[in-house]
Amino acid sequence: MKDKRTDRRVIKTKKAIHNAFVELVTTKGVRSITVRDIAELADVNRKTFYNHYNDISELIDEMETEIIKAFDSSMAGIDLVEALENPKEICRRLLAIGYNLKDICEHLMKIEYDGNMVQKIAAALTKSIKKTSADQIHVDEPTLKMMMEFAVAGMLQAYQSWFYSDRSESIEELSMRLSILIVNGFNGLLSEIRK
To answer: CA 49 to CA 52: how far, in whole Å?
Structure first.
């Protein structure tokens, strides 16, 4: 049986490393951040960093994976047919994602990194939503792919712009407007296809 104290320490240490990295992103470019910078800010030694990660790119990969898992978890079990009739359900799920990831997304959305993190996340999210929706929305594969790419790219771009803005609009208002836009856009296309 695993020692729960060890598990808690690992979680606490990784969280400190993640938070330090996110904070450093706001003051330095990703390419300028060193393991020493992260270790000092996280109040751990470099050996501790290397006990968990081979390098900074592995840390970034883990953070990307967390974002994708949180998105998948928020969208799991959604009835897309029902959601397309009720934008509030999509809004509720988008907000869950936003709240869960606000701390890291706020900074990670600003990162320009090799392979462009936002594009990598968008591709993974598109694949995930497409898999969930394939049995629920009965359209041909190219149309379904286009719909999912449109929704994910638009959503990520809107949230990214919001993170950069003065945030005069709340994240709740943004999520609701995005939900309505996605639902009405999808319904318009699906109505046209069904004619």
So the answer is: 6
Residue pLDDT, tens place only, 4-36? 556 888 989 999 998 898 888 777 777 889 999
- CATH topology for the 1-53 domain: Arc Repressor Mutant, subunit A (1.10.10)
pLDDT class for 109, splitting at 50, 70, 90? low
Domain regions of the chain by residue span? 1-53, 60-194
Six token digits for residue 63: 């953070």
C-alpha–C-alpha distance, residues 168 and 7, integer Å = 40
Tokens 């967390």 found at: 66
Q: Do 101 and 178 touch, CB atoms closer than 8 A?
A: no
Q: Which two tokens stand for residue 80?
A: 């897309």
Give one word for 45, left, alpha or beta, with left for phi > 0 and alpha for psi -120 to 50. beta
